């Protein structure tokens, strides 16, 4: 392959999965709210690049989150999309944290083929204290607890769930630990979230942007993925655990991803294709048709009504305030108001 071009394969249909477009230069600009899959065959690497613009801004701007909380939730949304977009079937990928930090819970829901929503629960006073102390990084906000990742294929199927500990570090570290201990797939994740100041008709306004990259080493030969035994936690002091040599291809891929800067994941003038070209043009990189992302909540007046009707009448009576029952969606902040008589009786 000519090193001055980017090899591109668009898989356009199941009937002709090998239809190809000739090699071309990487796109100068990148569309926001997209997932771009890629692979580097020479190194047995696969991955995805996610670019978020209006969709992430819509999710984070619906609540009055302090900036560090919004940034943390944005990182969770990017991670959820990077992982959830691997699903080959209709379903949901749910990422949820529960911890003892100022941000006690994140819940993010990705529904195939590209709908995402998310929300955060946090202690305002503790977050303010952390900000004042200069200790509002992701690890400090999360604290210690666990991160659960759930795959839901529908009501008639069993859920798959993976859990990894949160140890006072960020979501990138938690993702690496999960793949190391559970999936045993060499994986690296990069997440970036930031605000940009953009001029508009009503004056300058802050907008959120986000981006992420996931890289995995998936060789044909399983023996190329050698791993040392995990630390059992009770090794006597001074005793070193044996190490296993890492495959040169993975060492190279991991080093290249480590060079990615936040601005490369966020800047709309640096396309995802240009980023991949910078990282892997010497080895040859192939990208596939991108998929769109959108911020969309699954709540509706009808769903909320069914939910209220499922409660015992005594519970519904205790929900009445000023003669009304008011329900606010934690994800999109939409408010639904009902007359008590409108939700009386069992759900149909």
Task: Explain what the structure shows.
The chain is an alpha+beta fold and 348 residues long. It folds into two domains: 7-223 and 248-295, Hsp33 domain (3-Layer(bab) Sandwich), CATH 3.55.30; 301-343, Alpha-Beta Complex (CBS domain Like), CATH 3.90.1280.10. It has helices spanning 54-61, 67-84, 124-132, 138-142, 171-183, 248-258, 262-266, 272-280, 301-309, 313-319, and strands at residues 7-8, 34-40, 45-52, 92-99, 103-111, 115-122, 144-152, 160-167, 187-198, 205-217, 286-287, 291-292, 294-295, 325-328, 335-338. 32% of the residues are buried.
Features:
Hsp33 domain; 2 domains; alpha+beta; globular; 28% strand; 27% helix; 7-stranded mixed beta sheet; 348 residues; CBS domain Like
Number of alpha- plus pi-helical segments: 10
Range of helix content: 25-40%
Query: What does the main sheet amount to?
Result: 7 strands, mixed
Q: Give the termini distance in whole angstroms.
A: 61 Å
Give the overall silhouette. Answer: globular
E-strand count: 15
The run of helices and strands is EEEHHEEEHHEEHEEHHHEEEHHEE
Please sum up the structure shown.
The chain has 348 residues and is α+β, with helices and mostly antiparallel strands. It has helices spanning 54-61, 67-84, 124-132, 138-142, 171-183, 248-258, 262-266, 272-280, 301-309, 313-319, and strands spanning 7-8, 34-40, 45-52, 92-99, 103-111, 115-122, 144-152, 160-167, 187-198, 205-217, 286-287, 291-292, 294-295, 325-328, 335-338.
Helices and strands in order:
Layout: E1 7-8, E2 34-40, E3 45-52, H1 54-61, H2 67-84, E4 92-99, E5 103-111, E6 115-122, H3 124-132, H4 138-142, E7 144-152, E8 160-167, H5 171-183, E9 187-198, E10 205-217, H6 248-258, H7 262-266, H8 272-280, E11 286-287, E12 291-292, E13 294-295, H9 301-309, H10 313-319, E14 325-328, E15 335-338
Parallel strand pairs: 1-11, 6-13
Antiparallel strand pairs: 2-3, 2-11, 2-12, 3-10, 4-5, 4-7, 5-6, 7-8, 9-10, 14-15
